[in-house]
Amino acid sequence: MKVLLVCAAGMSTSLLTNNMKKNADADDVIDAVPVNELEHNITKYDVVLLGPQIKFKLKDVEKVAIPLGVPVAVIDMRAYGMMDGKAAMAQARALLAAK
Question: Percentage of the chain with pLDDT > 70?
Answer without folding.
Answer: 97
